[in-house]
Each structure stands twice: as C-alpha cells, then as structure tokens.
Design brief:
The protein has about 350 residues and is an alpha/beta fold. The protein has helices at about 15-30, 70-75, 120-130, 145-155, 170-180, 195-210, 225-230, 235-250, 300-320, 325-335, 345-355, and strands at about 5-10, 55-60, 95, 135, 160, 185, 215-225, 255-265, 270-280, 290-300, 325. It has two domains: about 5-190 and about 300-355, 3-Layer(aba) Sandwich (Rossmann fold); about 195-300, Dihydrodipicolinate Reductase, domain 2 (2-Layer Sandwich). β5 (about 160), α5 and β6 form a beta-alpha-beta unit. α1 (about 15-30) packs across α9 (about 300-320), α3 crosses α4 and α10 (about 325-335) crosses α11 (about 345-355). It binds nicotinamide-adenine-dinucleotide.
C-alpha cells in the first residue's frame, strides 16, 4: 500500500502516545515486541492499510521547548507527561513553529513558553513536507488556531482530522468548504476508546433499551495533564464542556438533567484521568435507581488507538476522492460528529466499512 503521509499539529500528550503507538504496532506487525495480543487495537487493517503504512512527515507546535527538536525527542519533552511505553527512532522530522492565534491559557503561562520568531506559512510547510492529511491535536479553547489550520489544510490540499472540541466537521459551512475542495474532514472532539463519554453513552443506551427513564446524570473528570490545567480557565473550557454534555445528551431521545466536563486539575495524577459518573432514574412502577461509577485511565493512550483507525479511514476517503465531512468515521471516533448515531450503530458501521461493506 502507499504511505499515509500525515502532519501533526500539537505535539502534546496525545501526539506522544500516537507516535509511540505507531512504532509499538510496527514492531508487533513484524512479530517483535512484548505482547502478541492486539490489545485496544481491533482493526489491524482498515481499507487494506496497516499502521506501518502511516508516516509522520511534518509536525507543528508553539512551545520553545519543542520547536526545532526531532519529533522523536519532542514527544518526550516537558510539559508532556504521557506514559512512555515505546522508544521511537530519530525520525528526521523537525517540529516547526505553528500559529498561537489564541495565545496560551493563563494557567499555562510559565509552563509553556511561546516562541516569538516568525512562523512559516502553514500551507506551504504542509506542501513542502508532502503531507496529505493534517491531524489537529492542539488544546481545547484554541478556536482561532484550529480554524486557521483547517483553512491552511484546504490550501495545501490536505484532509483534516479535528480531535479538539471546536466545531469544524459538525459545522455545515466548514463541511461545505471541504466538500468544495474535494477533501475529507473528520471530527469533532476525539472520543476515547475506554473513556468516560463512551461508557456513559453505552450505559445510557443499555438502560434506555430496558425502558428505564433517566432523570439526572453527571460525568466529572479530574486529571493532571496540561489539557486539565487549561480547563481551569472557564472560558477555554466552555466548548469542551459543551461538546461532552451534548454528546451524552444526544444518546437519549428525551431531555434529562446532565452536567459533564473536566472539573479540576491535580498535578500528581500526571496523565491519569479520573472520571466520576452518576446516573439517577426510575424503572418498574417508578422505583428509583442510582448508579455511581469511577473510571481511572491514562488519557493519552486512550485517544491514540482510536486515531490509528481514524487516520486510515480518512486515507481511504482520500483514495476514493471523497470530499466533505465523513459520517461513519466521525461517528465512530468523535464525540460530536456531523451525523450522530448510537455507539453500537457507529461501531457496526465502522466495522462494515473495515470489511469493505459500508461507505464512509
Ligand atoms: N485522550 C486524548 O488524548 C484526547 C481525547 C479527546 C480529545 N482530545 C483532544 O486532543 C487535544 C490534545 O490533547 P493533549 O492531551 O495532547 O493536549 P496537550 O496539552 O498535552 O498538548 C497540546 C499541544 O499543542 C500545543 N499547542 C498549543 N497551541 C498550539 C497552536 N496554536 N499550534 C500548534 N500547537 C499548539 C501545545 O504546546 C502542546 O504541545 C485536545 O484538544 C484534547 O481535548 C484528546
């Protein structure tokens, strides 16, 4: 198969797990590495593509501590705290300066230092690197920068994957822009493989099928990553909270009281995320039921596995000349897709696509 040439924007924790994951899975494909099991990695092939077909050809960040470094070094640079599970060889991909159009959050000042040298034109840098797909992994709240990168991706003829909580794939106008350019768009806001949103939705769906009426619920996250620190700033956290709340609310065909989002930063948790889920409802004869669940996971690997599938799905769309928002890939991998559907249906349709029986 041809290579899948991707550019990554935002060399933080999620990027670290993704890049490590590429080399972890490449070793496994060769029969090397500690485990033969495909844990958390259900699809060795998507549309004929293996993970070893993915190459990172360009990388962008705004932190002086990452710019100019080889990507293999930048992913382990502070303030990243992602779990280190795989050594990565030198890649010959230097991190380029991106555009910090939204500045940085108040709580990140002193942790991230902005580079004040001029940034290259992003579309030119994407073209020069030969990228065909750009993966947006910048922090929540960076709305202007996310839209700028999407615009530059169109200029450079790249597909775009939006993992951050900014409205792009779920926005009709942006959908039209990518359709017009004949370029695929997937998003918005990555949905972890084993994170609180996917559990919450799956439990609500199961309760609904048993005709249990949900009245109130919450899903509150605490973590120790820069993304959680950033979320302390209410304004930057608004969209993240809204995306998660909407995603959970859309699970049921009626309204109920729901609060969801990141509520605190605890530095000692590092890249751990602790989520508290609570659901209250009524079943037979109006009897009350209350459910409490606590989920503890490592944030970065939780998103990286899903991205392996999404990247290959988007590449298939590129090969097929499909432009505009991708329904199935987005519903499978993101909290707020252009066409929301139940988790089971999104999984079933993505699996059918993997087997070549479903359109994107
Ligand atoms: N499990 C997951 O990792 C997961 C799940 C769902 C959504 N997401 C989303 O993915 C994104 C990345 O998450 P993360 O945990 O890696 O965050 P992070 O804070 O660890 O990394 C963000 C990186 O982006 C860089 N950055 C900031 N502004 C930039 C700009 N304008 N241009 C280029 N680089 C910029 C930062 O310096 C940092 O290196 C967030 O939006 C998050 O909400 C991640």
């Amino acid at each position: 198969m041809p290579e899948i040439k991707i550019a990554i924007i935002g060399i933080g924790n999620c990027c670290s797990a993704f890049v490590q994951g590429l080399y972890y899975l490449k070793a496994k494909e060769k029969g090397e590495g500690p485990s033969k099991e495909n844990l958390g990695f259900p699809y060795p092939e998507v549309g004929g593509y293996k993970v070893s077909d993915i190459s990172v050809v360009a990388a962008f960040d705004i932190d002086v501590n990452k710019i100019g470094k080889d990507l293999s070094e930048a992913i382990f640079s502070e303030p990243n705290t992602a779990w280190r599970f795989q050594e990565v060889p030198e890649l010959g991909v230097k991190v380029l300066k991106g555009k910090a159009l939204d500045g940085i959050g108040d709580h990140l000042k002193g942790i991230i230092q902005l580079d004040d040298s001029p940034a290259p034109e992003i579309s030119r840098a994407l073209k020069d690197a030969g990228a065909e797909l750009a993966l947006n992994l910048i922090p929540s709240g960076a709305v202007k920068a996310s839209r700028h990168y999407a615009k530059e991706a169109i200029k450079a003829g790249c597909a775009f994957i939006n993992a951050t909580p900014v409205t792009l794939a779920s926005d009709k106008e942006w959908g039209r822009r990518f359709s017009k350019a004949g370029l695929p768009l997937a998003g918005d806001d990555l949905m972890d493989q084993a994170g609180s949103t996917v559990f919450h939705k799956a439990i609500l769906e199961a309760l609904h099928r048993r005709n249990i009426r949900i009245e109130k619920s919450y899903s509150l996250d605490v973590g120790g990553g820069t993304e959680d620190l950033n979320a302390l700033e209410r304004q930057r956290n608004l969209l993240k909270r809204r995306f998660k709340t909407e995603s959970i609310r859309a699970t049921l065909p009626y309204n109920f009281q729901i609060a969801a989002g990141t509520t605190d930063y605890v530095g000692s948790l590092k890249n751990k995320r602790v989520s508290y889920l609570w659901i209250e409802g009524r079943y037979f004869a109006g009897a009350p039921i209350s459910i409490d669940i606590k989920v503890t996971s490592l944030d970065a690997p939780n998103g990286a596995g899903v991205l392996m599938d999404v990247v290959r799905g988007v590449k298939v769309a590129l090969d097929q000349g499909l432009g505009g928002p991708l329904e199935v890939v987005s519903a499978y991998g993101f909290k707020v897709p252009p066409s929301p559907m139940p988790i089971q249906e999104a999984m079933r349709r993505f699996e059918a696509f993997v087997k070549g029986k479903e359109a994107l």
